[in-house]
Design brief:
The chain is of the alpha+beta class. It is built from three helices and 17 strands. The protein has helices at residues 7-29, 36-58, 81-109, and strands spanning 66-68, 71-74, 77-80, 113-116, 124-130, 137-149, 155-167, 170-171, 178-179, 181-182, 195-197, 202-211, 214-220, 232-234, 236-246, 249-260, 268-273.
């Protein structure tokens, strides 16, 4: 009759079994994982469950043990503890590799968006442009932002929105969140196109325009769908909260403090401020 298994052997085997279950669980989750964060949560949940299982079910009583070096005799069994610990370490390494492949590597290679701005060309520039109203040619001042992918994988479905307009520290609820126009894409479609940003790549997005023939207000560079909300911002001081996001990247925001003059279409000063 085989004697009871000693605590040392149980601990090593349970440790290895727990790691093996973790590796198996994470491996099964890889094709259906919704996000690295979700996968990590399930991974840690499995770890807790297996540890509880070890504490409640695997802690068997131990018998008298005779040992010599790395060998332990239990009844008619002779167990090499070194080999068992190697098994435990091996399964733990397998779990670690699986965790890195399914969670760590995607997190390290994930796309990361960044919004950049300077009060200078090419962010702020004057060009001759045709008016959408009457087709006349006039000087137009453009305010743009640059969105860059600082990650190591493509950012898919990138979109930039004007989220909020503030005046005198209060949100102006006349303005709804609207999608802004990527430079180089169609501006007469609804909704406006999204783009893909490859690693280290960047594109510009139009935010506001002012025209020499109509100074005193700035036009928001959104689509042409009529929503019953203002598409222009009158002269004065205001704060714009703008957010960039992608299907597979965390959103980022920037706050721009804008001062628009009433008589000169190029009297548009912009500075980046911290959120309050």
């Amino acid at each position: 009759m085989i004697g009871l298994i000693p605590r040392e052997y149980v601990a090593a085997a349970a440790f290895g079994l727990m790691s093996l279950f973790l590796a198996l669980g994470v491996t099964i989750m890889i094709p259906t994982a919704r996000s690295p964060r979700f996968t990590a949560r399930v991974f840690y949940a499995l770890a807790v469950l297996m540890f509880v299982f070890y504490l409640t079910a695997v802690q068997l009583p131990t018998a008298s043990v005779q040992s010599s070096g790395t060998l332990i005799q239990v009844g008619t069994w002779v167990v090499d503890t070194t080999a068992q610990w190697l098994v435990g370490v091996g399964t733990l390494a397998l779990a670690g590799i699986t965790f890195y492949v399914s969670v760590g590597k995607p997190w390290r290679l994930r796309p990361r968006l960044a919004i950049e701005f300077e009060q200078d060309n090419p962010f702020c520039r004057t060009v001759l442009a045709y008016s959408e109203d009457d087709g006349s040619l006039s000087n137009t001042y453009w305010l743009r932002l640059r969105v860059r992918n600082q990650g190591r994988t493509p950012a898919k479905g990138c979109i930039v929105k004007l989220v909020e307009v503030k005046r005198d520290g209060e949100v102006d609820w006349d303005y709804d969140p609207v999608q802004l126009h990527w430079v180089g894409t169609k501006h007469d479609v609804v909704p406006l196109p999204t783009i893909q940003l490859n690693p280290k790549d960047y594109e510009y997005v139009d935010v506001l325009t002012t025209r020499s023939k109509n100074p005193g207000f700035a036009t928001i560079c959104r689509d042409y769908l009529r929503r019953g909300i203002p598409c222009v911002i009158p002269a004065g001081a205001f704060l714009l909260r703008i957010a960039a996001s992608a299907e597979n990247a965390e959103p980022v925001e920037v706050n721009l403090e804008v001062h628009l003059g009433a008589s000169n279409y190029e009297d548009l000063s912009v500075s980046e401020v911290t959120a309050s």
